[in-house]
């Protein structure tokens, strides 16, 4: 099974986290910093998932399947081929700490 999973992880994604820094003049600046570079399988929504997403205005919702990484949270975002995705949920697949599914919506 491990070999089959390895063949699916062919898309390179970057997980980013927003940071805040206070400048010398007291202003807060926010920027996104790279936290993780991961190989992912990308799954588009089909059937019932697609229709449920469309009813909530999330037409560009995608599932990214990656190897388990405990530090990924919904307040982060994904960069993939110049596109930005807001993370909606992070799911530990089967609670096995082997793979996880990140459901994300493309930011337009």
From TrEMBL:
InterPro entries: Phage_SPP1_head-tail_adaptor (IPR008767), SSP1_head-tail_sf (IPR038666). NCBIfam families: gp16_SPP1. This is Bacteriophage head-tail adaptor. It comes from Anoxybacillus ayderensis.
């Amino acid at each position: 099974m491990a070999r089959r999973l390895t063949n699916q992880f062919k898309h390179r994604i970057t997980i980013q986290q927003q940071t805040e820094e206070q400048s010398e003049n007291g202003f807060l600046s926010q920027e996104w910093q790279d936290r993780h570079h991961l190989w992912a399988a990308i799954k588009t929504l089909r059937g019932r998932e697609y229709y449920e997403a469309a009813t909530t205005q999330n037409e560009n919702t995608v599932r990214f399947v990656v190897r388990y990484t405990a530090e990924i949270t919904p307040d982060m975002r994904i960069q993939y081929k110049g596109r930005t995705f807001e993370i909606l949920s992070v799911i530990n697949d089967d609670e096995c700490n082997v793979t996880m599914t990140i459901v994300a919506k493309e930011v337009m």
